[in-house]
């Protein structure tokens, strides 16, 4: 391989990144979550799995899958011929288990997925790590996920998802996103809602396993199911926010809201359509935590704990700094103390991995403010 840039190691993979090719060391956590998720899935299925890495770059992720999880077959693909050459070279630097069947392809992801589908080839784990919005690849990628298999995808169009750019959110997801304090979570819910909608068109639906918000990118692992009757219509909806008392609430798609149910204000905004159900499968998260503990991965363990905590909480969160500004309190009580008190008063309350200095609750916002003032 010409124009060598760097020799690197990540997890068990050793690899070289040529000068002209893309490799993002910051995406390590997403690759770690991919490995932990794939190991979990193999345990659940009690067998070695077939994997396709549709946009493999220099191959780090796919090589890690093959080295660190029970894989039976793996296809590493990248449309860039130089990347495909780098993948081949990097494969030769690593001693993959002899029983893993490895293929390297250099195709446009769409073209590859349609060709595989024509040959009836499906995969247990499909990795889709596109730049920007993944929406354009959902249809093709879903064609190669086995029913019951997992799609693990990336979105890096955070400005659109989190409400800073309105037009691309409408174009890619058919939804309104908002720059609210819980804008990241709105983005994750819009992202999954749009994927769900595209699956529903073809008599399929997805079940979320986890979402990992890294600030500059969103990663989601979702399980594909067959059948229209299972499509979770009641989990599609809107998130409504009152601009006067700041309370927020999710409602199903068919519900119209013109007034705040807490203070009666007509100054309400909505975001969506979006997914209003849980973004997590707690059984999957617990099993991933076992893998993370075995690997001694403290950051993953901390995030997985937060995800379990927020799995059954209402949609949307309130950021502590915003609460501080609105209450004019000199010192805001610790988030944990607020959560404990809300729970004592009979409300749901939890932290969230989207923003650690924030909390989720079904309490009306004025109640949260009152509790913050009392706890001063
Ligand atoms: C974000 S990088 C992948 C990084 C890699 N997954 C990792 O974790 O290191 C995206 C890759 O997708 C490739 N790519 C872009 N459009 C593609 C397409 N339509 N089909 C296949 N590969 C594509 C690019 O060449 C680039 O290497
Ligand atoms: Zn209100």
Your description of this structure?
It is a single chain. The protein has 376 residues and is α/β, with parallel strands linked by helices. It has two domains: 229 residues, Vaccinia Virus protein VP39 (Rossmann fold, 3-Layer(aba) Sandwich); 60 residues, N2,N2-dimethylguanosine tRNA methyltransferase, C-terminal domain (Phenylalanyl-tRNA Synthetase, Chain B, domain 1, 2-Layer Sandwich), CATH 3.30.56. Helix content is 38%, strand content 25%. It contains 13 helices and 15 strands. A hairpin with a 5-residue loop joins strand 10 and strand 11. Helix 4 packs parallel to helix 5. The protein is globular, with a radius of gyration of 22 Å. The mean pLDDT is 96. The structure holds S-adenosylmethionine and zinc ion (ZN). Zinc ion binds next to loops.
**CATH-level-4 superfamily name of the largest domain:** Vaccinia Virus protein VP39
CATH class of the largest domain: Alpha Beta
Major sheet details: 7 strands, mixed
What's the order of the H and E elements? EEHEHEHEHEHEHHHEEEEEHHEHHEEH
SS field, number of helical segments: 13
Q: Helix share of residues? A: 25-40%
């Amino acid at each position: 391989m010409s124009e060598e840039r760097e020799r690197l190691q990540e997890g068990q993979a050793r690899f070289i990144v040529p000068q002209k090719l893309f490799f993002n060391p910051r995406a390590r956590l997403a690759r770690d979550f991919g490995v932990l998720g794939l190991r979990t899935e193999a345990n659940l299925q009690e067998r070695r799995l077939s994997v396709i890495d549709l946009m493999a770059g220099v191959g780090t992720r796919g090589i890690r899958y093959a080295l660190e999880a029970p894989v039976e077959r793996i296809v590493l693909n990248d449309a860039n011929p130089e990347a495909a050459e780098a993948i081949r070279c990097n494969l030769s630097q690593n001693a993959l288990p002899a029983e893993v069947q490895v293929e390297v392809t250099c195709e446009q992801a769409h073209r590859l997925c349609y060709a595989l589908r024509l040959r009836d080839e499906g995969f247990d784990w499909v990795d889709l790590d596109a730049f920007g919005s993944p929406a354009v690849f959902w249809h093709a990628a879903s064609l190669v996920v086995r029913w019951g298999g997992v799609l693990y995808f990336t979105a890096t169009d955070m400005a659109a998802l989190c409400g800073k750019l309105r037009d691309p959110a409408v174009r890619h997801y058919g939804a309104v996103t908002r720059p609210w304090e819980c804008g990241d979570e709105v983005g994750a819910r819009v992202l999954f809602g749009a994927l769900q909608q595209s699956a529903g068109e073809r008599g399929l639906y997805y079940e979320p396993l986890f979402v990992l918000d890294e600030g500059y990118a969103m990663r989601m692992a979702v399980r594909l199911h067959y059948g229209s009757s299972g499509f979770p219509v009641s989990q599609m909806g809107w998130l409504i926010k009152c601009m006067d008392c700041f309370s927020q609430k999710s409602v199903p798609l068919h519900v119209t809201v013109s007034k705040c149910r807490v203070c009666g204000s007509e100054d309400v905004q909505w975001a969506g359509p979006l997914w209003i159900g849980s973004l997590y499968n707690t059984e999957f998260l617990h099993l991933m935590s076992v893998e993370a503990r075995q690997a001694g991965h403290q950051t993953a363990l901390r995030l997985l704990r937060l995800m379990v905590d927020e799995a059954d909480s209402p949609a949307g969160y309130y950021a502590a700094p915003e609460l501080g500004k609105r209450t004019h309190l000199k010192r805001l009580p610790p988030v944990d103390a607020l959560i404990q008190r809300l729970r004592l008063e009979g409300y749901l309350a939890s932290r969230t991995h989207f923003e650690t200095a924030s909390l989720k609750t079904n309490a009306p916002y004025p109640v949260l403010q009152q509790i913050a003032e009392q706890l001063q």
